[in-house]
Amino acid sequence: MDKNSASITCFYSLLLISSILFASHFHASEAQAPLVKGLAYNFFAPTCPNLENIVRNHLTKVFKSDNGQAPGLLRIFFHDCFVQGCDGSLLLDGNPGEREQPPNAGMRTEALKTIDDIRALSGGPNFQVPLGRKDGKTFSIKGTNNLPQPFNTTNVTLKTFSAQNFDVTDVVALSGAHTFGRAHCGNTANLDIRTPTVFDNKYYVDLLNKQGLFTSDQDLNIDSRTKGEIRAKCNLVNGAKKSVLTTLVEEGMELIDQF
Ligand code: HEM
After folding, report:
1. Is the C-beta atom of 176 inside 6 A of ligand 1?
2. Which of 257, 248, 254, 238 is nearest to 127 (CA)?
3. pLDDT digit string (tens) for 165-193?
């Protein structure tokens, strides 16, 4: 997408980055992040009431044929939001753009295509996301330097997230997103050795057993500030899911507040 067409496709990327896991059945028992002014869970109800169904139906088909698309989309969501807010800037073409920066290596082109196709987990949870964000018309190469790095210790990771107002609990919860998907370390390796295609809390069990893939994962079970939280997550059945998802929603809200 070039910058000039950004406004025309605004509806689509907004839908996308907001719809990955988000076109949702929301369960009343789940915590709901406070709404930021200008956003609404039913933002498109007046203009496109069938929107969530369209996205959900399309994603159901996509995930059935390729269970790697859910982690691909979740990573895109995170990498978009961490750089100047959830504005779809990762989708803008540049020469180079954000997608071409090293922290974005391994971004699944098929997941980017899915975004294009609809302009919405492998049996995983759904959560509701407030809609109405306006797409960015600019991107930030410099901002991609703020993305976390896999070779970092927890000390550095905590600083990286703290700069975006995330605390220790947020970092442990968000890192749980590595419960599925893969990485390119020479060969392709699964992020969660136990259940690589399921969104569950086995990532934390991996860490307890020294089987985390990256230093940024495994060190969470060494650093005294995060170690205890890892143990607690291993004892949860659905708690890890909820914690990651709630934090993701809050991430969007907090970042949108800043821009
Ligand atoms: C400590 C911070 C983090 C670091 C250092 C990190 C780093 C990485 C790296 C290096 C990869 C492999 C990319 C590749 O080689 O293809 C990856 C994959 C992934 N990351 Fe993270 N990440 C972090 C936090 C997060 C967060 C907060 C989320 C989402 C909420 C997330 C979601 C994912 C997903 C779903 C994948 C798999 C993508 C796929 O299968 O295509 N990560 N991450």
Report:
1. no
2. 248
3. 889 988 998 898 899 999 998 889 999 99
